[in-house]
Design the sequence.
């Protein structure tokens, strides 16, 4: 008997809660939507691991956390340095896409996770990076023809969020680059 009474009390309490919920939410028991429905979704091709990695890296880009390049600058991990001065470091890419493939970076990122973060105060270091490309191309013996690439953002296939210039040479380049 006691069990039946307890069950009846529980059912009564539950239906009371449900009735009050319905009154508070005229559209029934649906939980109100906190965010507006997304109008459209951008579909970015994700056919390769490289693109997926670029998108994953982009998700953390704005946080501006340390990258592998910080460890290269600090010489915590080895790299083949081609050129170095107070502000700029140039080293061979670990996964070269051409016989000459050198990465040129600012030693202090100063918010430059990518080129899209550039502000007027960065003009000097941006110029130094570009000038370093010319120095690197001469040192590497490709001054007559080479390509300079800056991948920016997920769609630009950027994977390391510390501004860098790729210097590619030593083979015939093609266009469009793909
Ligand atoms: P992104 O894809 O961001 O334009 O270029 C990042 C580049 O950094 C890639 O070409 C990649 O091969 C290179 N890279 C990533 N990690 C390392 C590393 O530990 N050492 C060197 N030397 N290059 C790296």
Sequence:
């Amino acid at each position: 008997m006691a069990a039946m009474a307890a069950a009846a009390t529980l059912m009564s309490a539950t239906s009371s809660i449900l009735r009050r919920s319905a009154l508070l939410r005229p559209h029934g028991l649906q939980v109100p939507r906190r965010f507006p429905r997304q109008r459209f979704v951008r579909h970015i091709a994700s056919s390769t691991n490289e693109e997926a990695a670029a998108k994953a890296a982009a998700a953390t880009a704005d946080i501006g956390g340390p990258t592998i390049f910080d460890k290269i600058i600090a010489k915590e991990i080895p790299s083949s340095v081609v050129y170095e001065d107070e502000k700029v470091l140039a080293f061979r890419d670990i996964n070269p896409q051409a016989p000459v493939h050198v990465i040129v970076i600012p030693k202090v990122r100063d918010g430059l996770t990518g080129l899209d973060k550039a502000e007027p105060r960065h003009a000097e270091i941006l110029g130094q990076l570009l000038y370093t490309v010319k120095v690197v191309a001469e040192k590497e013996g490709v001054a007559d023809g080479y390509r300079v690439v800056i991948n920016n953002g997920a769609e630009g296939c950027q994977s390391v969020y510390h501004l860098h210039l790729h210097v590619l040479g030593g083979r015939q380049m093609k266009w469009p680059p793909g």
Remarks:
- Residues 1-8, 10-46 have pLDDT under 50 and may be disordered.
- The two ends are 78 Å apart (CA to CA).
